[in-house]
Amino acid sequence: MGCDSGRLIPSGFPRHFPCQIQGCRDLHASENFLLLQFQDRVECWDTRPTAERKKGTLVWQCELAEDEQYVFPLVPKGYLIPRPPFFKMLTLENKALKLVLGTEHAMMLSCVKTVYSWGSGRHGQLGHSVLADETEPRIVEALQGLVMVDVAAGGWHSVSISDGGDIYIWGWNESGQLGFPSKTLCEKPEPGHTSDSAHKESSSPGGSAQQNNRAEMFISIQAFPALLDLPKMSEVSKVSCGSRHTAAVTCDGDLYTWGWGAYGQLGHGDTTSCDEPRIVQYFSEHSLFVLDVVCGPWNTFVCVIDKQVQSQSVPSKTEHSFNA
Predict the structure, then answer these.
(1) What is the per-residue pLDDT across 236-256, written as a single tens digit (0 to 9) for each?
(2) Is the pTM of this model over 0.85?
(3) What are the residues facing 259 on neighbouring strands?
C-alpha cells in the first residue's frame, strides 16, 4: 500500500521484509521479486527467504534521471519485468505512453494511441488473430484506426479502451475473464451456483432459449480484439485485469467485474465465477462513486469517493479491497 508521502507499507510479504519503505513512487510485485521505483533509481528485491539468507536481498538496480518522468515499469531505453534478467530493451519509433505486463506477454499504448503487443501468443492474448509468439512489439492491427486510451494485461488475456469508452478484449476465456460464454464454467458449476439455480434459470420465461444461445457461442480462445458491451451500454473509463478476472469502471462511477471468483475477487459477496459483466452492488448501495480499479492476481482494489461530495474540488478518497 502506498501513501501520499511516498511511504510504502508492504502487506503479505515475509516477516523479514522491511515494514516500511520510504520514498517509493511505484512498484511491481511477483511471487519472488519486488520492483521498486524511486525518484532516482529502480531496485529489484528477491523476497524469498532461504537457510542462508533470512531477509530480502537487493539483486538488481538502475539509476534514473531525476528530471525525467517514466510510467513504471518503463525506464530509459526499455522496461522492467519482475524476474531475471529484469531489464528488456524497447526500440520503437513512437514513444511509449503506458506498458503493462501479463504472465507471458506485454502490452503497450504508444503516444499516438496505438496498441502494441508481444510475447507468448499461445492463448490468443496478443490479439494478432493467430496463436504465434512475437519477440518484438507488433501493432494490434484490428485496433488500427481507433483511438485507444488505455490497456490492461491479465495472466493470459488483454483489454483496451477506446476514446469513446468502448472496451475491446481478447485472449484466454477459460474462467469467463473475457465476458463471453465459457464452457468450463458451464460444465463445472462454481460454489454458490448449484444445479437447482441453473434449473430455475432454464425454467423461467425465455431462460432456456437464452441458455441455448449462450451454449452455441462458447469461446475458449479469442485471438483478436472483440467488442464487449456492458449492461446499459455503459462507457468505460478505467480497466484492470487479474490473473483470470477483469474489472471495469464506467463513466457513471459503477464497477463491473467478471471471470474467476473463487477467492471473492469479483466482489459480489460470494465465490462464484461469472462469464458476464456484473455490477458490484456494494458501491451503489453505499452511495460510493468508483474512480479507479487495480486488480492483483487474485484480488481487487478500488478507489472511491462519496457521491455527495463528488462535486467538491478536493474530494476525500477511500480505498476498498475485496477477496476471500
Answers:
(1) 999 999 999 999 999 999 999
(2) no
(3) 245, 274
